[in-house]
């Protein structure tokens, strides 16, 4: 067929901005690229593929002639508009949490389960939440060889995972606090400074500068945060292991972009550090940075802006059989969001 | 006996400064309090119990007439001088890593194993590393009732755990970066700004502002960091569980003071969230902050400067039997260091 037409819904957001950058720098297989956001942004001009494109307000007509629509919008907007896109004949690739766990919607990470993208009875393909995605390329490669059984995960999640408001708030707080070399030394001192200098309109439930906040998402039964439940359910679905054992604690940290995860992973088969190195070195979208004796391991500031999943600190657990402990970093706006959606779009486009 | 005399060795350091504050505010059971540091600090005047005291340079004579000497100095200084203090008849309470795992040196957390402080054939009592200590009051209380079997821990460690140089570096980096609302968005950008503005003399192996660094301590076989190995070995010794299974990943975060830990803990017996609440509420040095539906959980900025161990985010694991996931915060300079040493000193002093 001729070049497929692509619509980017939420083109002005944190993910949408990276999305425009990604489709502008990867092999250009697209016909028209249409940019869509809320009525607030309609008429704005944004760059994509080096050209100025006028943003359109989301409406049924924006899907006319579109083959693939990538949605990077809040859950409730996706819930309403993804089915509209599909009904108008576009294949909808959705980044929101709305459809991910529906049995007739595939949840796809192209390195792990590309075949699932072909079964899309509703014309919808979901892409996972950024925390799960940050480790999937690595864990999928290890699972394929050693058979994953259990995951215990603690996250170090960047503020841009909360959208454009996240980095804005972190920069605001850092500016409000910088220069005072006593902050963070008595309980509540930072809260007081921030209350004086900033509005309390933060995307985070506590100060995020000089702090870590053990909460991400909404409240779920049993005291779980929705992000922790997603990490469990989405990992199971992507890897195709319905009885995978998962416990996660999700924590927000004052990092702009790039999520990190401390992963404790138990496999069916024995696996050494050397085995894991071999498998991960062979994984095309994984970069191994694992030579701690020489100070080599990934940190968010060295990973941000890059596509791969970075893995380091691989250790064989002392006391748990067939178990590795490791540290993974992935750019939550790239592989964690926009890149994975772009890869799905390219996968689908090749088979149109 | 008359009031015991106390010497604080390392009185000028990060832990030593909190130590002076703590002995100045707790019940005053001491005769003389002597302040000791390196020859660099000799002659300086520092406050303790509201009085000016002249710092003495470390030398054998500083232990003359001293009943209890608390050491808050680097490992190699402790290795040399703790035995000198003991040989001169003082009971040495040592915060360094030097003696902790020696079989004839007790490793004491007063809430957990106070009886161990009585068996001190060498006249030395060790106090645990700050990461282990940050969770011990809570894990000890749960262990006493439910029997701990396994721990998987990921840490969020404050910069003051690296001594006074830690906060100084974090404040420097924050000042160098504040106001630039693009930092942290491309790989290496922060490294470049810091290389231009600051010396590369940092206690951390990577930038710590806007970053997390998965390394704490020195290199150990198998790719482990010494802090991770300590957390395993010291937890076993303090709790008296020689076969406790432990895996830990230690990560430094841009928090000034207060370590946090995401803990996945498996017990011998079934334990619900309500059970854990009951046990932790009854533990005198633990504060339960666990009502996430109403935004109640501990964060370092709300805990810093306080003595107790704060626990929240307690959840029953979905997929692991007898297992809780939880989040613990403790001030690494207080309970994690100075307070625990002061409590040991008081325990010992009562029985002199
Ligand atoms: N940030 C991440 O790391 C990340 C990772 C994984 C998943 N996600 C998910 O990706 C989606 C987008 O997140 P984000 O971080 O990019 O959020 P964001 O920065 O807040 O951007 C939201 C986007 O949605 C648009 N939008 C909002 N309401 C709309 C409406 N009624 N009609 C049409 N467009 C509307 C906004 O347009 P205007 O500018 O016109 O308001 C903007 O383009 C969310 O579902 C989020 O959960 C984000
Ligand atoms: N910070 C924490 O959270 C923490 C927690 C647990 C354990 N620790 C341990 O506690 C100890 C002290 O740590 P810190 O963080 O307080 O370090 P710090 O801030 O660097 O202070 C070091 C102290 O040791 C003194 N010192 C250094 N060399 C000396 C020498 N040759 N003779 C006599 N005194 C000497 C210093 O005196 P000058 O000022 O005169 O140099 C200073 O008082 C270390 O063993 C550390 O591993 C620290």
Automatic annotation (TrEMBL), chains A, B:
Record carries keyword DNA-binding: no
Gene3D superfamilies, per the entry: Dihydrodipicolinate Reductase, domain 2 (3.30.360.10), NAD(P)-binding Rossmann-like Domain (3.40.50.720)
Positions with a binding annotation for substrate: 157, 252
Domain of life: Bacteria
Gene Ontology MF terms: aspartate-semialdehyde dehydrogenase activity
Residues binding phosphate, per UniProt: 100
Pathways involved: Amino-acid biosynthesis; L-threonine biosynthesis; L-threonine from L-aspartate: step 2/5; Amino-acid biosynthesis; L-methionine biosynthesis via de novo pathway; L-homoserine from L-aspartate: step 2/3; Amino-acid biosynthesis; L-lysine biosynthesis via DAP pathway; (S)-tetrahydrodipicolinate from L-aspartate: step 2/4
Enzyme class, UniProt record, top EC level: oxidoreductase
Pfam families: Semialdhyde_dh, Semialdhyde_dhC
Keyword terms of this UniProt record: Amino-acid biosynthesis, Diaminopimelate biosynthesis, Lysine biosynthesis, Methionine biosynthesis, NADP, Oxidoreductase, Threonine biosynthesis
Function comment: Catalyzes the NADPH-dependent formation of L-aspartate-semialdehyde (L-ASA) by the reductive dephosphorylation of L-aspartyl-4-phosphate.
Record family assignment: Belongs to the aspartate-semialdehyde dehydrogenase family.
Listed name of the protein: Aspartate-semialdehyde dehydrogenase
Lineage: Bacteria, Bacillati, Actinomycetota, Actinomycetes, Streptosporangiales
Name of the encoding gene: asd
């Amino acid at each position: 067929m001729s070049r497929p037409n692509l619509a980017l819904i939420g083109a002005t957001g944190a993910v949408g901005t990276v999305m425009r950058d990604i489709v502008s720098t990867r092999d250009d297989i697209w016909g028209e690229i249409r940019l869509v956001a809320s009525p607030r942004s309609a008429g704005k001009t944004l760059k994509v593929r080096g050209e100025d494109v006028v943003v359109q307000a989301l409406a049924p007509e924006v899907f006319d002639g579109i083959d693939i629509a990538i949605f990077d919008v809040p859950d409730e907007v996706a819930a309403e508009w993804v089915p509209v896109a599909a009904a108008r004949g576009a294949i909808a690739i959705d980044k929101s949490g709305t459809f991910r766990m529906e049995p007739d919607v595939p949840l796809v990470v192209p390195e792990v389960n590309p075949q699932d993208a072909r079964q899309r009875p509703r014309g919808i393909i979901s892409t996972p939440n950024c925390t799960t995605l940050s480790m999937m390329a690595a864990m999928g490669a290890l699972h394929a060889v050693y058979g994953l059984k259990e995951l215990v995960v603690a996250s170090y999640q960047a503020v841009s995972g909360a959208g454009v408001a996240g980095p804005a708030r972190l920069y605001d707080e850092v500016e409000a606090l910088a220069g005072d070399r006593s902050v963070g030394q008595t309980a509540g001192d930072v809260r007081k400074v921030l209350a004086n200098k900033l509005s309390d309109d933060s995307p985070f439930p506590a100060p995020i500068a000089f702090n870590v906040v053990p909460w991400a998402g909404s409240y779920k039964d049993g005291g779980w945060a929705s992000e922790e439940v997603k990490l469990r359910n989405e990992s199971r679905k992507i890897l195709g292991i319905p009885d995978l054992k998962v416990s996660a604690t999700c924590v927000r940290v004052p990092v702009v972009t790039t999520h990190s995860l401390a992963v404790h992973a138990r496999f069916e088969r024995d696996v050494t550090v050397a085995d894991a190195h071999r498998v991960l070195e062979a994984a095309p979208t994984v970069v191994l940075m694992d030579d701690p004796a020489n100070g080599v391991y990934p940190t968010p500031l060295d990973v941000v802006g890059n596509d791969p999943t970075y893995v380091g600190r691989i250790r064989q657990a002392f006391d748990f059989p067939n178990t590795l402990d490791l540290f993974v970093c992935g750019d939550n706006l790239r592989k964690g969001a926009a890149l994975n959606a772009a890869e799905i779009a390219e996968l689908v486009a090749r088979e149109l």
